[in-house]
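Structure ticket #2291
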Amino acid sequence: MIRQHIAAVERRVGNGAYAKEAAEIRRAAALVSTLRSRLGLTTFRRTLNPGSSKPQFLLAFESPEHGNVALKVYGRRRPDEAVVQRTWYQAGVATIEVLASGNDPTSWLLMPEIPGQPPEPNEAARLTPQVGQLVAEAHHVSINQATRSLRAGVVHHLHAVLQAAVAHRYMLPHGWEKAANAYESRGRIVAVHGDLTVKNLLRDRKGRLLMLDTCGYAGPPEFDAARWSARAGGSHHAVALLAIWLQAEPDLDSSHAQRLLGLEMLMEAGVREIIKDERHESWSERDEETMRCIDLAAELLACPKVTRWRA
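Resolution: structure written out below.
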């Protein structure tokens, strides 16, 4: 199982922008047995991320102390996840308890295994009011430990995916990078989830939604609203979903949220293109959804429009 997961990560990243993740997953694999012994975990039950090619392991074990548990192991340091998730849980936010964690030499978390399933992707739009209310509660919890800034956390990913878009002959709006520097670090700063998608939610057997896999960045709360809306709505529905979210979390700055949505639409455009590289798919024909995402980004960022596609 561990070898299969390593192979899946290596196939996905190849020699591309995320090639370093191949080394990360091998570091994580080397740590699993050490942590199993240190934490007194007994029977290995199953993998909790089958089919995933993320550079991490999420494994179900039995623990004499805690019962059925989930061990998450990274191949790099991500200390903010445990800090923020633990604080949110203690404050009553709908997330999962952190039983133990560490960053030696890379980050890991031990959590109770909660029976449930993530919502279906086609539920995302309908869940927006509920997710907005859930995340709004998290945004009002004070974190007494410094965490990584949102800008520092997303800058590499944003540049990597947009380089793929440019390599595929798409033209980006003028001034997008200046907008990113201004809007991802201004305004009220809180602990944000940073990676909201239905894949990072769990619906337990009582029907409750729980947040998983927080990045724990320090940034404007509007970012979570923008990222969810872009991912759940795409170019056709993102603006409408953001409006719904703003009703659920009315203390957000709507203008700031719209600018961040513009950046997230650029991110979505770039992600569509880098996935084609990872899957070795053709990109020679222009992608209409990529074009619509870039158009909407230019509109929301108030950037001058450019020719979007170089034939």
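Closing remark: Residues 44 and 195 are 28 Å apart (CA to CA).
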